[in-house]
Specification:
This protein is of the alpha/beta class. The chain contains nine helices and 18 strands. Helix 3 packs across helix 4 and helix 5 packs parallel to helix 8. It starts with a strand and ends with a helix. It binds flavin-adenine dinucleotide.
Length: 368
């Protein structure tokens, strides 16, 4: 099971925490990423994990494998081809009609059988709704450690996976090791890791694996699929521009100022956690450790202090513009552009300026 690493870690065999890795785990090698596919669409977090897995595999001098599970057909094959274009050396392919829609039982069975047969040392999954469900049941079935919602992955000198994640409400970062069990499992939330460059590459080595499971033995049945009517409303995690408001805006009606600026920029809008707690914006708009992690090209934060729990969700942005009345607000420690001013007065002026600048008429004038 996972253990918090003391510093310095006591050496093996000296009565410290680390025991010798049991012999039956010594054959475990290579880094795997479980590619998440739902209704034929690969979740981008899988490619982000392949980028991260590539770095780990290179450090360890091992192969990076994509695990692609789905119904037989073009979508599953396409997902596998894309995994190669995002860094995989090889793929394990499990195609079965049973895997048409995600259900915990057949996916857990497929993945645990694969692990038991081919023995990876590291197994990474996205910390999505599906990935969290699958990772938890795979880890408990395999009786190994799982570090959830990691913000950093590395391998240390003795080649153990160092999985770092926030702890104590985000005020500390903790590096967790799975020293005596294999595989070492971790989940990472979408957008926490950067997207690797896609490079056109042919499909490499593929190991096709049969799933030894019959539909009759699965308790869960899919009767119908009703898409979440709200699910496409907020696409904060993958937006190029995000405007967010915090408690400094002072009132529910001022949230409209954030929405107006977002509309002028063709951006998504978000907020800090207390704004959600106040009921000024819905939870799906929350940015930060317990909300969405974002990596936009531009992030505008208005009336947000920049607490650590907010910072961890936004610091991957290319350009952070902070508007805050307090020059010593923590957000100015990591913002690229800081404006010390009243956001309630400034946002309407900024919105008007952008509207004028981005109007088709002016765009034509600027281009000429
Ligand atoms: P405040 O801290 O109240 O800051 C308001 C800021 O606005 C101040 O800096 C002030 O100077 C400025 N201001 C005031 N008036 C104006 C004005 N007129 N114009 C411009 N600026 C003005 N927070 C998140 O955001 N996301 C999370 O995911 C998250 N997860 C958390 C998880 C845990 C376990 C815990 C314990 C906390 C979490 N928090 C999270 C809360 C976090 O610690 C902060 O409390 C929160 O981010 C503060 O929100 P805020 O900056 O909007 O409000």
């Amino acid at each position: 099971m996972p253990e918090a690493k003391p510093a310095p870690r006591p050496a093996a065999g000296r009565g410290g925490m680390k025991k010798e890795l049991p012999d039956h785990f010594k054959a475990y090698r290579h880094v795997w990423v479980a590619v998440e596919m739902e209704r034929g669409i690969v979740h981008p977090v899988s490619f982000e994990l392949l980028g991260e897995g590539r770095k780990l595999a290179d450090k360890l001098g091992v192969e990076l494998a994509a695990v692609v599970m789905g119904p037989p057909g073009e979508a599953t094959r396409h997902a596998m081809a894309e995994a190669f274009c995002h860094g995989a050396d090889m793929a394990y392919l499990v195609e079965d009609d049973i895997l048409h829609d995600y259900r915990n039982e057949p996916y857990t069975r497929a993945l645990t059988d694969l692990v038991n047969a081919h023995k990876p040392e590291i197994l990474l999954l996205g910390a999505t709704t599906l990935g969290r469900d699958l990772a938890g049941s795979v880890a408990t079935t395999l009786k190994t450690g799982l570090t959830a919602d990691c913000t950093e992955l590395d391998v240390d000198d003795d080649k153990s996976l160092a999985a770092t994640r926030p702890t104590f409400g985000g005020s500390l970062l903790c590096t967790i090791y799975t020293l005596n069990f294999r595989p070492q499992m971790a989940t990472v939330r979408p957008r926490v890791m950067s997207m690797p460059e896609r490079v056109e590459r042919p499909v490499g080595k593929v190991v096709e694996v049969k799933l030894d499971l019959k539909e009759e033995s699965i308790i869960t049945k899919i009767l119908d699929f009703i898409p979440d009517a709200q699910s496409h409303k907020a696409n904060l995690a993958y937006a190029d521009v995000v405007v967010a408001g915090g408690m400094g805006l002072g009132a529910l009606e001022n949230m409209q100022l954030v929405k107006n600026l977002a509309a002028a920029l063709g951006a998504e809008y978000g907020c800090s956690r207390p704004v959600v707690q106040k009921g000024w914006m819905p939870a799906e708009r929350q940015v930060g450790q317990t909300g969405k992690t974002i990596r936009p090209k531009l992030y505008i934060a208005a009336g947000i202090s920049g607490a650590i729990q907010h910072r961890v969700g936004v610091e991957g942005a290319d350009l952070i513009v902070a508007i805050n009345t307090d020059p010593s607000a923590p957000i100015f420690d990591f913002a690229h552009v800081g404006l010390v001013t009243d956001a309630v007065r400034f946002l309407p002026a900024l919105t008007e300026a952008f509207k004028r600048r981005l109007s088709p008429h002016n765009r034509d004038k600027l281009a000429s």
